[in-house]
């Protein structure tokens, strides 16, 4: 039985569900559909369904919905996952070679699920990128805004952060060493990009059994904009302010609680403690 979990608020969710049902019926696939309508709903569905023995899951939604389903699975190693990208960013789908729209269903109907890595992060999991810094502050500001389009909110939040952000003091432990940074961004990467296409870590590979730690020192205010432009162009890894450390896991701590994003989902945490789980989940991917 295929368990289809749909973010009701996703773009074109209705049409995608309609086309998905048509193709699943034509292929003789037994399925059932569950709609999410609030944060955390996909976690509850994935947990209860996998606890009851469900092993096949299809997500129609974006990175946040995929993250919730992954975080809810009782035992990801016992499950297979297919994704029809329908979010605003779909960053993990890019790293996994999953096409947009209904074409993604071909991977499930005509292909085989292959191993993929993910991160265990305490009570949460992450498929793509987990981290903290200016990107999280921008997202937090966006979500506090009540008016405007998503792009308009993001631009206004970005401008506000450019004038006010002075870095986050962090203590990072990786590969047995602990160092302190005043960071613009600190992230543990399994995937290559975040924020709807920002290439934070192009060298990351989703099935190589390791993670990539990226720490960017907060530059002086006068050079912040040029460095962010380099980030948008995927050039930040070559800069002296960037520390790129391959690892199996990392711990990122602040002076108190910090706000952490797990594939775009924001939580307040005492620390980000991420470790790779190599090849345990089977994913229908390119």
Could you state the order of secondary-structure elements as H and E?
Answer: EHEHEHEHHEEEHHEEEHEEE
Task: Classify the helix fraction into a percent range.
Answer: 25-40%
Beta content: 35-45%
CATH architecture of the largest domain: Sandwich
Terminal residue distance? 23 Å
Q: What is the overall pLDDT average?
A: 93
C-alpha Rg (nearest Å): 19 Å
Main beta sheet strand tally, sense and closure: 13 strands, mixed
Low-confidence stretches: none
Helix tally equals 8
Count of beta strands: 13
CATH class type of the largest domain: Mainly Beta
Structure classification? alpha+beta
Estimate nothing, just give the exact number of structural domains.
Answer: 2
Describe the fold and architecture.
By secondary structure, the chain is of the alpha+beta class. The protein folds into two domains: 2-111, 3-Layer(aba) Sandwich (Rossmann fold), CATH 3.40.50.10330; 129-279, Tumour Suppressor Smad4, CATH 2.60.200.40. It contains eight helices and 13 strands. Strands 1, 2, 3, 4, 5, 6, 7, 8, 9, 10, 11, 12 and 13 form a 13-stranded mixed β-sheet that branches. Helix 2 packs parallel to helix 3 and helix 6 crosses helix 7. It is globular, with a radius of gyration of 19 Å.
């Amino acid at each position: 039985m295929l368990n289809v979990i749909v973010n009701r608020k996703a773009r074109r969710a209705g049409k995608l569900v309609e086309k998905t049902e048509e193709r699943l019926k034509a292929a003789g696939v037994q399925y059932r559909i569950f709609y999410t309508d609030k944060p955390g709903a996909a976690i509850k569905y994935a947990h209860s369904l996998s606890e009851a023995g469900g092993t096949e899951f299809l997500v129609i939604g974006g990175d946040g919905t995929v993250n919730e389903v992954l975080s809810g699975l009782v035992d990801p190693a016992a499950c297979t996952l297919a994704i029809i990208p329908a979010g605003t960013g779909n960053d993990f789908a890019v790293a996994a070679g999953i096409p947009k729209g209904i074409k993604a269903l071909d991977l499930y109907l005509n292909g085989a699920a292959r191993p993929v890595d993910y991160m265990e992060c305490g009570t949460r999991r992450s498929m793509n990128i987990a981290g903290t810094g200016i990107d999280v502050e921008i997202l937090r500001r966006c979500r506090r805004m009540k008016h405007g389009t998503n792009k308009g909110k993001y631009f206004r939040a970005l401008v506000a952060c450019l004038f006010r952000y002075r870095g986050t003091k962090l203590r990072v432990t990786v590969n047995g060493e602990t160092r302190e940074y005043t960071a613009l961004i600190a992230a543990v990467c399994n995937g290559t990009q975040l924020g709807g296409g920002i290439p934070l870590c192009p060298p990351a590979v989703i099935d190589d059994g390791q993670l990539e730690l990226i720490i960017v020192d907060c530059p002086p205010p006068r050079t912040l904009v040029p460095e962010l432009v380099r980030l948008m162009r995927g050039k930040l890894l070559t800069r002296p302010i960037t520390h790129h450390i391959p690892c199996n896991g990392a711990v990122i701590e602040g002076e108190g609680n910090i706000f952490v994003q797990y594939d775009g989902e924001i939580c307040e945490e005492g620390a980000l403690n991420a470790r790779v789980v190599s090849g345990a989940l089977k994913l229908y991917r390119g």
